[in-house]
Structures are given as C-alpha cells and as structure tokens.
Recover the amino acids of this structure.
C-alpha cells in the first residue's frame, strides 16, 4: 500500500488506519514479549527443580515447558484474530502462575517418585491444555459479552444444577470429608468451581436489570430503604440454595467464596454499603452457630485458634496439616531454601491446597510476595476493566469475576497462614486440580473479552 | 458504580495486605520459634542434609559424615569404637545429641555466624553447604594409654596440659559405640539407646564431667591446704595437735586417720606431713580453723559451683553451705556432702602445676574450614588465679614428697619428680570406696596434670586404695605424655 503524505485528508485516514492497526498490534506484541518472559521463568524454575532434587536436568521438563508455551501461544494467536484490543498483561500473569504451579507440582512429583501419567505435573499439563482450549473456545464464541446477560436465568439454572450435582447418588464423591466432587467414570471434577462463573454471570445479569428497583423502590425502615421481596426474591433463593447445598456438602471455602461474590455484586450494583452490614452479620451469625453445633466446623475453629495445642494437632481433621505448613514457611524464611532443596512433601496435599506453603518454603517470603504481587496485578487489571467498562453488565461481570479470584486467593493463603480458619479451596492457577484450572481459565477468557470490548469501543468512538 | 468499584478495590487491597502481613510474621518473626518446635522434622533433616563437619584427633578423623542414599543424605560414622565416645558424644535421629556433637553443633552444622560468608558462597555457587570440622586437643597415644590403663574398671581419667588447659586424654568407662546410635532407622536407635540406658554399667554416663559426682576424699585436702597457706593463716610448717582419734563436736562420731594411729610420731604434726601421709584428723582441725567461708572462697576459685564448659557442660562440683563444725571437719577431708567431678580435681592439680594460674580446660583445639585451614586457631584462656605462685610451689613440694616418700608412692616414675595426691573416699557403711589419684609431672616443669577415679574399690572384693589402684593408672598416663 502506497500512501501519499502530501494529502491532508489521506493523512487523517492513514492515521486512523495506523491507529487501528498499530495500537492493537503493540498490545499483542507486548503480550507476546511478556509470555516469552513468563516461559523463561517457568523453564528456569523447572530446570532448577530438577537440579535441586536430582542434580541433573531431565529432558522430560522440555515437554512441560514447550507444552505450556505452545498452548498459551495458541491462546495469544487466537486473540490476534478475535480480541486484538484485549488487555496485554492478564495472559502473561496467568501463564507465569500456571507455570510456577507446574514447576512446584513437578518438584513434589520428583520427591514422591511419581513419573509419566502417575505424575501430577503431567495431569496438570493436560488439564492446562484442556482449560486453554476451553478458554479459546469462549473467546472465539463469545464475541459480545452483552449476549451473556440475556441468558441470566440459564446461568442461574446451570449454577444451581452444578452445585447440586455432587449430591446426586452414584456420581457424587466425598473426598477429605467434603462432598463436592463428581465422578463420571472417565473423569472427576468439582462442579462448584464452574458454578462460581455461572453464578457471577447470573448475579451480574440480574442485578443490572433489578438494581434500580432494589435501591429506589421499597419501604423505609430503621432509616434504610429495604427492597421489595419481589425484587430480591430470585437472588435470595439462589443464595439460600447455594448455602444449604454447601453446608450439606461441607465445603466452607466455596460457601464463603459465593457469599463474598454475592455481597460485593449487591454493593456495586446498588451502591449501598448496608448490604455488607446485613450480609456480614448474617454470615457471622451463621458461622458462629455452625462453629457451636457442627463438629467439623468446630474442629476447624479449634485448629485455627489453638493450632499448636497437641490435642488439636493430633485430632482427626485437626491442625497437623496447618502446623506442618507453617513449619514449611518458617523453614523457607526470607529467601527460601531454593527449589528442590526443602521438604514441602511433608505437608499433606502440598501440591493442591498447600501449594502456597510449598512455594513459601522453597522460594521464601520473597517468592510469596512475588506471587501475591502477580495476583494483585491481575486483580488490578480486572478492576480496571470494570472501571473502564462501557456498560453496567460488563462492569459488574468484570468486578465479579475478578473478585472471585481475589477472594479465593485470600481464603486459601489466609487459611494456610492462619488469618482465617482453613477451608480447603485451591489456589487459582497454581494448585493441582483440573476443575479449578478450567474455571479460572474461563474467567481469563471472559476478562480478556471484556477488556477487548472496552478498548475496541474507545477506538471505534473517538473521544468516548 | 465507579465509586463502588474503587471501594471494592480498596477492600481487596486490605485483604491482600493481611496476607502480606501474615506471611511476613510467619517467615520473619516466628521463624525461630517454629524451627525449634519438636514436631518440626525439617530442622532434624536439615542438620543431616548439610554435610556435617568432621571431628579430628591430630590429623585422624574420628567422626565424619559419609554420603548415603536416603532422606538424611549423610550417615554419621565414628571411628575408634568407644575410645572417643566420652568426647564426641552421639548424634541420633530421635534420642538427641550430646558431647562435642552437641556443644559444637553450630560449627559442625555450618550454622554459626562465623560461617555466614561460607553459607552465602554456598548459596551463590550452588555447592552443598558444609559444616566446619572440629579438631580436638586430645592426643591419640595418651587417650589410648588412659583407656588401656583403666581397662575393665569403672571410672574416669583426664590428662590436661597445665600451661594451656588443653585436655590430652578424656576417658569415661565403661563406654559405648556411638555408631550404635547413629542409625537412620529410628526403631533401631531407640532400642539400642534403651539398652544402653538400662544397662547396670550405665555406659551413657560421662563420669569425667557428669553423672552422680564423687566424694573426693583426701584429694580435697589439696584445696584445704591451698586455702590454709595462700590465705597466710598457716605455713607448710604450721602444726596442729596430733591425736590418734578425734571426737566430732556435738556428735557421737569419732574420726580416725587411715592408719588408725596418730599422724606420724609427735604430739603435733605439720601440714606438710599431714598432706604427705594424708591424715584426716589434722585436716579436720585445719578446716575448722579456716572456717567454711574461706574454704568455699578457695573451692570456688578452683571452679567449684560453676558449670565449666570444655565446651561440653560439666555438672558443678559442690562444697556445701551452712555446715556445723562436725560437718566442716568431715568436709575438710572430702567427705560429708562434698561432691566433685574428676575434671574439677584435675583443675586443682593443673592450677598448682601451672604456678597457681588456672587455665580453662578444653577439648577443642581449633575449628577447621572445608580445606582444613583453621577458622579459629587455639588460644589458651585463663580460667582464674586461685592461688599465688608461692603457694603453688609449696603445695607442689608437699605433693612431690607424697609420691617420693608418702602414701602416693604408686605413681613414682624412675628419674622423674612426680607430684601427687591420693584419695580413698568412703561412700557410707559397707559401701565400696571411690579411689583417686591426682598429680602432675615433671614437678619442676609440668607437661601433664592428671586425675584418675575408680569406682567400687577397684572391683569385686579387692581392698583397693587410691595408691594401689588409681596411682599406677595415672603413672601410665603421665608416662605416655612424657614419652612424646
């Protein structure tokens, strides 16, 4: 193409064209560069793990490293076609977290002597591939996020069904005292992880339409305008169902996660902080009652408040795992033992629930801060997408999805570091677990889609 | 809605702030508490994972860490069987650590501050961290001679170089093989440990510096004589009455000299003669004249009441408080509740041998880096200055007389002036005696101060005395030093 710089009108069109072509390319090029950086860090971590544990670099890590790089690049290429304006930081951050997770899981495989398909790292790799393919599917299929709002009641149904699934006889499985798994014979997964996305979609979709009636219409009582039952109804029903199911499934972490999501979206949609007071009070009361009457909740509280008590330490479901995790953190200190040089395998579930303790032991406080900073950066990008959003549904969805990730990190890391009782959730992107990976990669795809819309519209409507 | 979003992001910031704080608290401020928790097996694994430094006698390794293929990565191995066990101690997975393995653990494990730069270098270069080695002052030939001389007897022997405090021999019998406790199989360790612990011979007791302590008997007369002369209250030729028996005041008990007669001819006896012949009655009278407070001052100046670290911690030797005259009389010849470690008596002899200056006894010569270059070379440390050079010389002469022409003649070495003092301590009615010898040689220029203690009168049914059993053992130890 030959453009004449002498023509003023031509120049404007050229500038417009250049702007459209160049800016997104810049974003995608930045993303590609950062992904390469994330892959270098991941590969180095895998190599250090091998050297630390066995003394030599095993060629099998090339499979893990190249595999992760290839599928993330596939996602990147897909964005070049269908989401050119998407946020350039989200994918590299998630790649790095996912890669560090695989490196630590590989490290734990080595000390446990697991190889081939027995190895958790191999399975995590396959799940990452599946999750990325699903994410690519989402970003290719969902070209306009507003479509999702139309199906809000479908999401409600999907969310409730997914939550109920583990209670169905024959396919529901109880693992570690919590009935939140579904085993279909060829594959087992935690439907609750996917459920959180369905509920976020429903809450966001419903609140957008109901927010005015929720905040304006209603009776005034105690100086507060209370919404009509009619407007609140569907949300309360969904929330109550979620709570009941979760109590029966004995999954405190997911329960807390949904509750937090619900409160935050109510607050953002209506702009009334009273929801935090009411909701927090409800949850606090519920937790207090549960801690008095449900022995497993009581045990969790004892293990949290008096972890080093020998009786709690030895109790079934007591503080043994928590205390061993703390020993791991302490053993790492500020700079860590170095990858492959600690004993993270001592802690039960070191590759899933306690992967942060494993990373804290070998990478030290420095490593933990770096990982938390990555999450914080991810959350900052997500909130930014919400703030810049062109429509309220997009804003609510962006903040809902972002908050789910942030709160899940807080619940897990807060649990293993004794800020709150241990509840048993997986650390997003890091921990071994297929359902969690698929769910969180779908969140990534949705956030990328939302961010693409934000920028795309800004380009399309100059001055907006 | 923008306002709410900002507030939500502040809320998320608070949540993450809590995580930054909680991880910092755990990984920085609670680290020391968490690391020492007995349930934290990482600390145990770590002490194995670093290649623990060796322990050397001369240039010979007597304890080293050998690489093995298990979770502990290194197997602690001891050479010489039980010969060095009283010094090295043991290093177990579940029954603790003692001896030099414990006292020098921070150096051996590479955790001491002086090895900080080594740790950094190991971290940067990627080499395995490795502890420093510890070279002992023990002399292999003297140690072997002492061990052989004690043979099957139960007791202890220590040889010290008086001018430096270097311990040349450090023996406690019966002994044990620390390899039995070094297994990585915790059940094996536990059963071996229990067997040693429950053995009637009590091999795990380090009799040289710990255990139940011994009555010193007549070797304590050195402390009393030192107090009498150094305080200026008496001289070597000062006399006390010389009866053949003495009724203890306010008591029905009567005390006798070992000979059951008076202390040599004459109605009075000098301190010099009383020490040479080791008579109880004269020393009982001297002790009362000096008084409890003055005796204690001198005893403590020699080390009584203190936990001496060699660097293994010793049990403090006891000089009782608040005694009446009868008790003070008994204490003045090392009976009643006077209790000592053999090391304490060796320190008394060492001070006399070194002109009154007591050097701090130690078994550690130097700490060696990875290439066996010394990190900290040996420097003699003064423990104290319990008596003057004049007093030391007077005591030395009396002790030389004791060996040449007294009740310590079992320690005579032809052609060498040996200074010595025996003891035959009673442990109660019909109980076997504790037999002692302490001394040094050559008297003019001492190269070695020794102590030997033998329990149970020297064995079944033998009417042993310090002179007949302990003195010949001490002579062999001194000869081993003088032969070098």
């Amino acid at each position: 193409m030959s453009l004449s710089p002498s023509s003023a009108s031509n120049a404007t069109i050229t500038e417009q064209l250049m702007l459209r072509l160049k800016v997104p390319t810049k974003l995608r090029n930045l993303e590609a560069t950062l992904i390469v950086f994330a892959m270098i860090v991941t590969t180095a971590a895998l190599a250090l793990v091998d050297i630390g544990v066995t003394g030599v670099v095993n060629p099998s890590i090339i499979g893990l490293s190249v595999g992760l790089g290839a599928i993330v690049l596939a996602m990147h290429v897909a964005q070049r076609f269908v989401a050119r304006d998407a946020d350039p930081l989200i994918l590299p951050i998630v790649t790095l977290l996912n890669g560090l997770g695989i490196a630590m899981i590989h490290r734990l495989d080595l000390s446990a002597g697991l190889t081939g398909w027995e190895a958790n790292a191999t399975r995590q790799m396959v799940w990452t591939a599946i999750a990325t393919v699903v994410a690519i599917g989402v970003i290719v299929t969902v070209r306009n996020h507003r479509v999702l709002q139309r199906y809000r009641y479908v999401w409600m149904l999907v969310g409730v069904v997914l939550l109920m699934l583990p209670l169905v006889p024959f396919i529901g499985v109880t693992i570690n005292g919590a009935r939140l798994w579904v085993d279909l014979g060829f594959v087992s997964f935690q439907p609750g992880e996917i459920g959180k996305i369905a509920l976020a979609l429903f809450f966001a979709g419903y609140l957008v339409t109901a927010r005015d009636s929720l905040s304006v219409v209603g009776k005034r009582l105690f100086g507060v305008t209370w919404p009509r039952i009619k407007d609140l109804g569907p949300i309360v029903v969904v929330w109550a169902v979620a709570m009941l199911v979760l109590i029966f499934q004995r999954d405190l972490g997911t329960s807390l996660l949904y509750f937090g999501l619900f409160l935050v979206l109510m607050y953002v949609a209506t702009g009334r902080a009273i929801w935090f007071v009411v909701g927090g009070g409800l949850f606090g009361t519920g937790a207090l009652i549960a801690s008095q009457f449900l022995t497993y909740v009581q045990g969790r509280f004892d293990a949290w408040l008096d972890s080093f008590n020998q009786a709690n330490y030895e109790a079934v479901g007591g503080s043994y795992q928590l205390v061993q995790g703390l020993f791991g953190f302490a053993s790492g200190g500020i700079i860590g033992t170095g990858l492959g040089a600690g004993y993270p395998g001592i802690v039960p579930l070191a590759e899933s629930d306690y992967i942060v303790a494993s990373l804290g032991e070998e990478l030290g406080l420095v490593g933990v801060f770096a990982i938390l900073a990555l999450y914080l950066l991810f959350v900052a990008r997500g909130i930014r997408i919400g703030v810049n959003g062109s429509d309220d549904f997009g804003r609510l969805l962006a903040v809902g999805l972002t908050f789910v990730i942030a709160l899940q990190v807080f619940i897990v890391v807060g649990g293993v570091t004794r800020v709150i009782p241990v509840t048993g959730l997986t650390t997003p992107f890091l921990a071994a677990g297929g359902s969690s990976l698929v769910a969180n990669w779908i969140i990534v795809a949705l956030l990328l889609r939302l961010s693409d819309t934000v920028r795309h519209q800004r380009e399309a409507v100059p001055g907006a | 809605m923008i306002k709410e979003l900002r507030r939500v992001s502040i809320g998320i910031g608070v949540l993450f702030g809590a995580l930054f704080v909680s991880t910092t608290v755990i990984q920085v401020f609670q680290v020391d508490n968490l690391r020492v928790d007995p349930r934290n097996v990482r600390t145990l694994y770590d002490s194995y994972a670093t290649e623990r430094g060796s322990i050397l006698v001369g240039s010979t390794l007597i304890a080293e860490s050998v690489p093995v293929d298990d979770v502990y990565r290194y197997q602690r191995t001891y050479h010489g069987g039980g010969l060095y066990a009283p010094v090295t101690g043991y290093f177990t997975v579940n029954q603790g650590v003692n001896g030099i393995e414990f006292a020098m653990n921070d150096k051996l494990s590479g955790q001491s501050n002086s090895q900080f730069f080594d740790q950094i270098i190991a971290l940067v270069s990627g080499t395995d961290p490795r502890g420093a080695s510890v070279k002992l002052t023990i002399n292999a030939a003297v140690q072997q001679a002492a061990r052989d001389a004690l043979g099957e007897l139960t007791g202890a022997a220590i040889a010290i170089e008086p001018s430096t405090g270097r311990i040349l021999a450090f023996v406690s019998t019966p002994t044990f093989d620390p390899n039995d406790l070094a297994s990585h199989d915790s059940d094996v360790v536990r059963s071996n440990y229990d067997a040693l612990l429950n053995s009637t011979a009590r091999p795990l007791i380090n009799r040289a510096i710990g255990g139940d302590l011994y009555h010193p008997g007549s070797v304590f007369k050195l402390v009393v004589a030192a107090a009498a002369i150094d305080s200026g209250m008496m001289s070597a030729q000062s006399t006390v009455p010389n009866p053949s028996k003495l009724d203890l005041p306010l008591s029905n008990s009567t005390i006798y000299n070992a000979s059951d007669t008076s202390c040599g001819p004459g109605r009075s006896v000098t301190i010099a003669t009383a020490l040479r012949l080791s008579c109880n009655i004269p020393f009982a009278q001297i002790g009362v004249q000096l008084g409890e407070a003055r005796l204690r001052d001198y005893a403590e100046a020699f080390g009584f009441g203190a936990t001496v670290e060699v660097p293994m911690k010793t049990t403090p030797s006891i000089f009782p408080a608040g005694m009446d005259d009868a008790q003070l009389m008994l204490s003045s010849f090392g009976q009643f509740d006077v209790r000592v470690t053999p090391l304490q008596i060796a320190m008394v002899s060492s001070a006399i041998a070194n002109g009154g200056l007591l050097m701090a006894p130690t078994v550690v010569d130097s700490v060696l880096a990875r290439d066996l270059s010394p990190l900290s070379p040996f420097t003699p440390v003064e423990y104290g200055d319990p008596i003057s050079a004049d007093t030391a010389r007077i005591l030395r002469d009396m002790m030389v007389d004791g060996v040449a022409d007294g009740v310590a003649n079992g320690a005579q070495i032809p052609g060498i002036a040996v200074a010595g003092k025996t003891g035959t301590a009673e442990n109660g009615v019909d109980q076997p005696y504790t037999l002692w010898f302490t001394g040094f040689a050559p008297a003019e220029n001492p190269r070695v101060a020794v102590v030997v203690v033998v329990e149970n009168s020297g064995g079944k049914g033998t009417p042993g005395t310090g002179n007949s059993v302990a003195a010949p053992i001490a002579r062999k130890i001194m000869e081993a030093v003088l032969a070098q």
